[in-house]
Amino acid sequence: MKTLIKNGTILSPEGEVKADLLIDGEKVAAIGTGFVGPFDKEIDASGKYVFPGGVDNHAHFEALNTDGKTTNAGYETTWCTLLGGTTTIVDFCTNEPGMDLCESIEYRINTRAKGRVSPDFALHSCCVDYRGEETLAEIKKLVDMGVPTMKLFLAYKGTSLYMDDATMLAFMNEAKKYGMTMMFHAENPDVLDMWRDGEAAQGHYEPKYHYMTRPPFGEAESVSKCIRFADAMQCPTCVVHVSCIEAGEEIRKARAEGKPVMGETCPHYLVLDPHLMDNPDWKQAVHWICSPPLREKPHRDYLWKALNEDWLSILGSDNSSIPQYQKEWGFDEKLGCVDFRKVPNGCPGAPDRLNVAWTYGVAKGRMTKEKFIEVCCSLPAKLNGLYPRKGALQVGSDADVVIWDPEFRGTVTLETNPNGLTYQPYEGCEQIGRAETVLLRGKVVVDDAKYVGQPGDGQFIPGKPFGLAYDLLKR
Ligand code: DUC
Ligand code: ZN
Ligand code: ZN
């Protein structure tokens, strides 16, 4: 099957070029002009931008909630990410009950995800059941299975998610031998517990106490530890979901000093205001409980700058598909109100990632189109060892293509921007530009901004070790 996308403007980190894109089967066959048919399909992209499908470094579907016990919503909702122009998600795979890390990956690919995922997907391993040497011996096997990244949680003490310093160091020591990139949720757990329990002791349980009890210094302290350990162990590391100036500054300075660290931030930290959680209707306010929390405007302004300056390199969604009924677990019968400490942390957002970056970045002059492609597509693919199969439109790349209409104007609602849940954290936000047509490995899965694909279109894409963060090692 040959498809020609003609008359568009192709975007890449190097700039833009008016050219046609020829697809043969699942791959990009050529980029240029004057291609001679016959073609099975021609798509006219006049007035549109053509760029590689988004690669989302950070997705949680059917993931362990932050209580360390329960699981959020499923792969049947992943079609929404295609509607938003993201064609590859990197999902997190924690230990399944009774399974080691490799068994959990195998089960995830061949059972849980089988026939149910709409975009292509890669996986990060995420240890929640550390068994010393036995677990460390899995790192090489994980890499061999195409899983060259691992996330550990340094927050949530008292749950299965939490990992202490000794475990963190042991993982780093082993990971670097096989080209695994370590990723961390960096918040100091003792700071969190002291602040959170302090407020609760004064009878403060409403959702707004979530953002008030996760101070930037607690995040920065933990980021600083990640950096020091990464440098001492020479283990390339990515700190995910960086939310504040103090944490970003730690990464900026470390990168200036040549330390092997990268950082990710997320769309909600760029544009959403923590005072959304002041909403007296707690069933609404809980929608924005995520960790680290939303921050005030100076932090949001800083994060845009950090992305532009490559202090932070990746825009990941941290999509957490937590249904409304789970968000209401914070309701406490005895208190007769919500207890913010019991609400699962996380916001949906994988489908909204490109829209947010384009609307509030490119369209508002805060980010170039080149930087947009870098942070949304190419750098996440490189970090995860998926490039140039993913994150690029080069001859031989998978034909994951977004045809983007920059003239579109809209307002985000759950109907226009579904995420598979019953609430939309970006409800009411402006939208400029949208994915009009999306191809996944040559197949049209979004047409006229409507999903036309099938669950199960998505394939597991193995990542290669020694991803982008390894380029930062001292040689
Ligand atoms: N960290 C994440 O990365 N995702 C959801 C919740 C959390 O704490
Ligand atoms: Zn996290
Ligand atoms: Zn996450």
Characterise this structure:
This protein has 475 residues and is α/β, with parallel strands linked by helices. 29% of the residues lie in helices and 24% in strands. The strands form 3 sheets. Strands 1, 2, 3, 4, 5, 17, 18, 19 and 20 form a 9-stranded mixed sheet that branches. Strands 13-12-11-10-9-8-7-6-14 form a 9-stranded parallel sheet. Strands 15-16 form a two-stranded antiparallel sheet. Helix 8 packs parallel to helix 9 (245-256). The mean pLDDT is 97. Residues 58, 60, 318 line the site of one zinc ion.
Features:
alpha/beta, 9-stranded mixed sheet, 9-stranded parallel sheet, binds zinc ion, about 475 residues, binds dihydropyrimidine-2,4(1H,3H)-dione
Which stretches are poorly predicted, pLDDT < 50 over at least 5 residues? none
Shape annotation: globular
- Beta percentage is 15-25%
Please give the radius of gyration in angstroms: 21 Å
The span between the termini is: 45 Å
As a percent range, the share of helical residues equals 25-40%
Secondary-structure topology with pairs:
Blueprint: E1 2-12, E2 15-24, E3 27-32, E4 41-44, E5 49-52, E6 54-60, H1 79-83, E7 86-94, H2 101-112, E8 120-126, H3 133-136, H4 138-144, E9 149-153, H5 165-178, E10 181-185, H6 189-201, H7 208-212, H8 216-233, E11 237-239, H9 245-256, E12 261-265, H10 267-271, H11 282-285, H12 297-308, E13 314-315, E14 319-320, H13 324-327, E15 331-332, E16 337-338, H14 353-362, H15 369-383, E17 401-411, E18 430-440, E19 443-447, E20 450-451
Parallel strand pairs: 1-4, 1-5, 6-7, 6-14, 7-8, 8-9, 9-10, 10-11, 11-12, 12-13
Antiparallel strand pairs: 1-2, 2-3, 5-17, 15-16, 17-18, 18-19, 19-20
Helix pairs in contact: 8-9
